[in-house]
Amino acid sequence: MDSKTLEQAILALAKDQDLLASFRADPATVGAPLGLDAEWAGVIAGGDRDRLRSAGLGDAITILVSRWFADDLGDSTSKGAFHVDTTSPLPDPDVPANLVFAAGCSHVPDLIARPEIDPEDAVARLMSGYERLKADLAAADPDVLLITADCHFQNFRTGAYAIGTGPGYTGSMEFFKRPDLELTIKGHPELALAMVNAIRAEGLEVEESSEFPLDHGEIMPLRLLLPRPDLPVIPIITQPARSFSPFGARAFGEVLRGVIESRDLKVAMLATGGLSHWLDPGKFGKADVEFDTYLLEMLQAGRGNDIANLEPYALLDHGQYEFPNWLIMLGLVGPGVRGEVYSYEPMEASGGGWAVVNMRLPERDGNE
């Protein structure tokens, strides 16, 4: 069910107490003229905030159905659980024609800097996912690769997202006692500047940066996945400590669609980060398997874009402060595209739930 339809129905009921009373007596019949099917009418009548929140409604709207519609003053039936909608039809995918690859993976430094700290079998399963993804990226044969990561050791002038506009970048993992794990890549200034200009034209914040050192956010996944050393790469850096907005991350990716479509280039997009991952004192080493599973099931169901409708706390509370990196990629891909999970491993020593997911683009495999 479309979140806007649900929201408008709830607001209509809230404004008309007679209509609300009739709705509570017969949700399906009264809900139909409001655009509700019987299932979602029952969800609203039952005060099920958890289902509504998972459908993308804000907490200020959903609390109406429990505290006001159902007279549950303490909101006692809400648990904060998340549900994956598998009944509503998916929109037809509308992927940019020249987007030839899209995926997400973790950028955990320990996987290449000191893999021995985690269970050997788990490391092997995770690495097999990267190997599959590298083969997919090589087969796509892109002209340029966009990669998202979050700010770790770089310094920028603003708190906005940053796009690398330089001719090339270099860096190493010296912060993790591995200066030998270095990387030098080519940039694509022309396309990067076009992306910057398009973002600004939409009134969104972005900082262009011709120089910044690569860190593990780019080095780790690119050392494992880059199909050839001369492939131009454009880094996109989020700054979650300063500007955390799931909705804004998706909007950022949506703006890039027009830029990509206007170029005669085969484009690949790689998102990096978590899933669940805390750096907070006292929380490092935890993985939220339940919420990670929800995210992965949403991707598999073709509803990854809907994750951006969650209020920021829902992600931050579960350690998903790096997931906006993925939402930029999902905004570029568009709704209705299913993800295939190649691997997922919660690893205590390296500090999170690590995943590798390939987005099954219709142009690549014929899926609709």
TrEMBL record:
Domain named Extradiol ring-cleavage dioxygenase class III enzyme subunit B: residues: 103-351
Enzyme Commission number, as recorded: 1.13.11.16
EC class (word): oxidoreductase
SUPFAM superfamilies for the chain: LigB-like (SSF53213)
Key words of the record: Dioxygenase, Oxidoreductase
A GO term for molecular function: 3-carboxyethylcatechol 2,3-dioxygenase activity
Cross-referenced InterPro entries: Xdiol_dOase_suB
Protein name, per record: 2,3-dihydroxyphenylpropionate/2, 3-dihydroxicinnamic acid 1,2-dioxygenase
Organism per entry: Streptomyces smaragdinus
